[in-house]
Amino acid sequence: MSRITKNLVASILVACLGAIQFGYHLGIMNVPSQVLSCSEFKVPNEDVPYVETWLGKSGFKQCIPLDDEQIGITNAIFCLGGIVGSFFVGTICNMYGRRIISLFNCLLSLIGALIIFSGNSFSTLLWGRLLTGVACGATLIVGPLFIKEVTPPHWKGFLNVTNQVMIKVGILLTQLIGIVLNDSYRWRWIFFCGAIAALVNLVLWLEIDDSPKWLFSRGDTLGAEMALFNLRGGLYQEAQEEVQTWQREVEQQNSLANVEPMGEYNVMMGPSSFWQYIHKELYWRPRQIITILLMGQQFCGISSIVFYGVKVIDQVDPKHSLEINFLIQLTTVFVTIITCIMVPVMNRKPLLLISSVLVVVSSFLLTIGINRNDGTLLAVAVFIYIIGFAIGLGPLPYLIMKEISTPPDQKMAQKYGTVCNWTATMIIGYIFPLLFDIMNGYAYFVFTIVAILLTYYIFSSVPETRNSRNFVEMWMGF
């Protein structure tokens, strides 16, 4: 059953709206942070005082006084929520289903966005960011899982591109809406748009069937067949045959589970817990690569662009910072599309090395551009940076994470890698405003040094994972 039907496309697009929400909330503080925090005042209409607007009359403050550390905390707590959501959602969605958890994620995101929209204090801002972070962290796991389970095998690569691109589209939408609403009167509506997106996604999920594979895992064979038939169309017998294939796979896995374990570890079933994965010597080599790649990509400074790109560009070119930032995100969308097409047919390591070298060069140019107050050099450097990051350091660590792990280990490896990545994002989200205030452009020289070290590590310690016939061949020479 490899056909693409209207119901299948609708289901995938609804799941991808979760990726848009994730991207939207990831980049949402980038544009309005200056006017939100009372650091800058932009009045769209001098003839109408704020107290005469609907927001002013309704008791909403014109801005919330925040210093740079507090702005960093609002981004860090979003990442903390992401850690919580992504860590626990796997177990919960196996219990209650992809659809129910996706509905809950949308509701949580809706509540969080409305709390931020209506908040008049730092504490309410934190609560809103925490809730949206939990929702986004969970969505980042459940959405791709749902897409993987409903998609015909021959289309999985193409539809994985769709999910990746939608994340970038979400960031782009934040910047686009920010160009229109980023002033001291209307910044709250940027967050309200996030609430609208969550509400639309929630309503659409009500019309979508749950994953056939999840229904099958709960013993509802008839429900799985019906859901698969509704998604894929064709003959009902084809749906029955595919479900029977799943049954045979389960029986094979159950037989493997009876293999004699090596101590606490069953070779054929993988680690039984997250704790076992992070402390067993058996996983040291893949775990080291996952840690360095997934944290290193963030310590190269990409989150400084996602969270604070407008502020960075504003230092040199305040008149065009919003427009430049929008063009940066637009470029990211197109480069992501091209990269997702390139990655399946190119070796991982050369692409990763090219990417990291471009990040080294562009980070150094960013340092010079900011310190010399050179807007042209700064803009060129940022574009090189995001293109370089998008072709390798962005997508490839997640792919390598899977390819250096044996199939039974991949689930725990993904959970570990996700925690590493969220943790590094949280650290950069918090410290960058402080680092930038102290060091100005030299903050990017720190990222340059990190990128150099990461490039050396990739060259010396990361094996080529594409087309390796077995793990012995892959690790040969390392």
Automatic annotation (TrEMBL):
InterPro entries: GLUT, MFS_dom, MFS_sugar_transport-like, MFS_trans_sf, Sugar/inositol_transpt, Sugar_transporter_CS. The keyword Mitochondrion does not apply. It is a multi-pass membrane protein. One of its GO terms (cellular component) is membrane. Its main location: membrane. GO terms for molecular function: hexose transmembrane transporter activity. SUPFAM superfamilies: MFS general substrate transporter. It is found in: Membrane. Keywords: Membrane, Transmembrane, Transmembrane helix, Transport. Residues 11-466 form the Major facilitator superfamily (MFS) profile domain. The chain crosses the membrane at residues 71-93, 100-119, 125-146, 158-181, 187-208, 289-310, 322-344, 351-370, 376-399, 419-436, 442-459. PROSITE patterns: MFS (PS50850), SUGAR_TRANSPORT_2 (PS00217). It comes from the Eukaryota. PANTHER family: FACILITATED GLUCOSE TRANSPORTER PROTEIN 1, SOLUTE CARRIER FAMILY 2. Belongs to the major facilitator superfamily. Sugar transporter (TC 2.A.1.1) family. This is Major facilitator superfamily (MFS) profile domain-containing protein. It comes from Naumovozyma castellii (Yeast). The lineage of its organism: Eukaryota, Fungi, Dikarya, Ascomycota, Saccharomycotina.
